[in-house]
Design a protein that fits this description.
This protein is an all-alpha fold. It contains 9 helices and no strands.
Amino acid sequence: MSHSYAQYSTSDFDNFDCLKISKLIYLIVVFVLRGYIVWLMSVSNLRDKVGVIQWIYPEPSLFYLSLLSGSLGLFVLVILSLRRPEAKLWIKNSWRYIRVILMSALIFDLAVNLIGYFYWQIQTLTWVIVNASVVILFGFLLFKNNRIQINIAEFPEKLPE
C-alpha cells in the first residue's frame, strides 16, 4: 500500500495523515447537486428570486426533477462533512461505500432525466445524451482513479499528540 502514496507530496495529506479527498468526488457531488446550487443562487439574488431558476430551468418540472435527483447528493455531502476521527459508526460504514453511493446518485440522476424525457417529454434529447455521457465518464473515473481508491481505504483517525 505504501507504494501507492509515492506520487503524492506532503501537501496532498490532511491533518490526520489521510490523502485529501479527490477533487473528482467534489465534482461529482456538484454535478448531482446542480439543482440545489441553482436554487441557492436564486435565493441569494435579492432582485429576482426565481429569475435564475427560470433561466436555467424554463420548465418548473425540470427544476423539481433536478432537486429530486440531487437527494442522494445531499447524503454524500453529509458524509463528506462528517468524515472525521470522532465520526459515528454509520458515517464510517457509509464512507466505505461512498463510490457505490456516488454511482447510485449518478444513475438516479440519469434515470430521473430519462423519465423526464420519455414519460413527461420535458427534457431534450441533447441533454439526456450529455447527461448519459457525463455519468459514463464519471463512473469510469470513479472506479479507475487511484486517489479515490486510497480515499475510500482510509478514514481519519485521531493522531497521538
